[in-house]
Amino acid sequence: MEAFMSLLTQHPPVLILFSMLLYLLHIISCEFRRVRNLSGRQGPPTYPIIGCLISFYKNRGRLLDWYTDLLAESTTQTIVVRRLGARRTVVTANPENVEYMLKMNFNNFPKGKPFTEILGDFLGCGIFNVDGELWRTQRKLVSHEFSAKSLREFFMHTLKEEVGNRLLPLLESLAAANGGVEVDMQELLRRLAFNMVCGVSLGTDPCCLDPSSPTSPMARAFDVASEICARRGAAPVFAVWKIKRAFGVGSEKRLKNAVEEVHADIKEIIRNKKKERRLIKLVRVNGLD
Q1: Which keywords does this chain's UniProt record carry (predicted)?
Q2: pLDDT tens-digit map of 115-153
Q3: Which residues pair with 80 in a beta bridge?
Q4: How many other β-carbons are positioned within 10 Å of the β-carbon of residue 159?
Q5: Which of 194, 186, 188 is nearest to 216 (CA)?
Q6: What contacts 57, CB < 8 A, 6 or more positions away?
Q7: Residue 19's pLDDT band (boundaries 50, 70, 90)?
Q8: I need a labelling partner for 128 at 20 to 30 A (CA). Which of 3, 67, 134, 201 fits?
Q9: CB distance 229 to 218 below 8 Å
Q10: Cα–chain-centroid distance for residue 238?
């Protein structure tokens, strides 16, 4: 011990380095106690530097269930998730918090860059992925259309047609086939939703409700893009998918190809609709002549 103290007194740089090391250990110890106390009340087990990266990685395949379990254990129905490589995330199921953010003080809670980055390659600058003035401008344009009585009636008519003429007969036929057939209802309802979206927004019918029929290329591309974007949000470290996107490899390459296919299919639908309108207009003009 005396030799060690003599070394410190004879070599000031060593003394300074040793003091800095003790101070650093003290800070880490205090931070460890702080995050341990916080994690016990407001979120998953959290550690200095890495945060809750271990728990997040273990539950990356069931994030929704994991968040639900943590929220159920929280007395405030709100948790704080801190992990290395990502920004601090606050998750809440408290009705008062939700009302405050979405209704009373909406302008103070934008989606933010982390959210828009995840979906930007897929949704672009659409209303679901922008903030501020751009969001308000698009909302005004959309609100006029979606508040129109004719659109609501068209939506309800399309829904009744899909359910009454396709979904229910399909379920009846599957139930009657060889004593019944096991059906993946989630997949079936996903196909129904895709048919509805295409019918209402694009005016086209992909005819992909029947599970035995092949999925349309646009539906497959849409599913791939949605899944990869969801994986971005569930990635333990955001830098990983950003690096893959920069080099155009792996899942990010598949995402790019899927988005290009969706855009190409939609452009083709728009071109065909324009041709139909021009043809109808031409027929009407010739009929009048």
Answers
A1: Iron, Membrane, Metal-binding, Oxidoreductase, Transmembrane, Transmembrane helix
A2: 888 888 888 887 778 887 888 888 777 777 666 677 778
A3: 90
A4: 15
A5: 194
A6: 236
A7: low
A8: 67
A9: no
A10: 14
At residue 257, what is the residue type?
N
Angle, alpha carbons 78-84-85 (nearest 5°)? 105
Question: Which residue's entry shows tokens 């395949």?
Answer: 61
Burial letters 52-83, b for 16+ CB under 10 A, else e? bbbbbeebeeeeeebbeebbeebeebbbbbbb
- Point out which residues pair with 83 in neighbouring strands: 51
Specify the 3-state DSSP secondary structure of 63: helix
* Amino acid (1-letter code) at residue 132: G
**Beta carbons within 10 angstroms of residue 109's beta carbon:** 11
Place of tokens 């273990």: 58
Q: Which amino acid is at 216?
A: S
- State both tokens at 235: 């990635």
Closest Cα partner for 218 from 189, 196, 194?
Answer: 194
Nearest CA to 46 among 22, 76, 75, 70? 70
